[in-house]
Every structure is written in structure tokens, then in C-alpha cells.
Known about the structure:
globular
Amino acid sequence: MSKIHVQCTINGEPTEFLCEARQSLLEVLREELGFTGTKEGCNDGNCGACSVTLDGVLVDSCLVLAAEVEGKTVGTVEGLASAEGLHPLQQKFLEHASLQCGICTPGFLVASKALLDENPNPSEHEVRHWLAGNLCRCTGYDKIVRAVLDASGTAE
């Protein structure tokens, strides 16, 4: 089976890889490129654990074929922190104890950043609605919502 050559940008870095036509972006990110922060939960687009941004749009990487990212920009959880330190969302997740087992946390962080990029001052309702596609079995969501609101500066 022949492989497809893909050139894209991941977390601001030009990236090239070979993939099979059937491989998902999730599979290539984790198994070929070492971006293991993106988690596999359901592998059918229902849990949000594999959330990444694709040209600034939040997507489930398990539903995107890797070949589809040719010429595009992908953002993963590994792209949030910088050499100077954690992204403010990561810091607020720590401060609010918004993570437990960690499987859903990367997806929530990427989804939260996508929300704040689109709406820097969301209401609690808007945060809850935006994050409805991300599932967590451990935290009960309230701490996650509080962390996002705090990061946005709209916490009460």
C-alpha cells in the first residue's frame, strides 16, 4: 500500500509525514509523530479527548484523516505551553484542581483555548455549552468551567 506524503504545520513547526489513506490524524499524531498528549477515548467523535485545532477550528482528530491536513495548521495540547511556562489555561486548571485521571484534560484544554480565542469573555453558560462535546468521568465539570472562567477573567 502506498503512503501519502503530507506537509503541514503542527504547533507552529513545519512538519512532514507519511501516512496511509485510512489513518486518522489522531493515529498519526500519537503513533508517528509522538504527540501523545492528544488522547484516544472513544475513537468515534463522542468524547473530545482527541480534540485539536485544524486551521483554528476545534475538531476531533479521530474523525479527521491525516491526509486531510495537507497544507493546514494543527494545534495540539503540546503547543499550549511555552519556554516561559504554562499557558494561562493550564495554570488555572492546576489552581482549580480541574483534572484527575488526565485522559480528558488535553481535550478540555484545547477546546477551552479554542473557545477563548473565539470569545475571550464567555459566560458560564457559553463555557458549558462549548465544552459539551468533551466528556469527563472524574471531575464533575464544575472545576473545569471555573478554571476556564478564571482564565478568561470572567470568574465571579
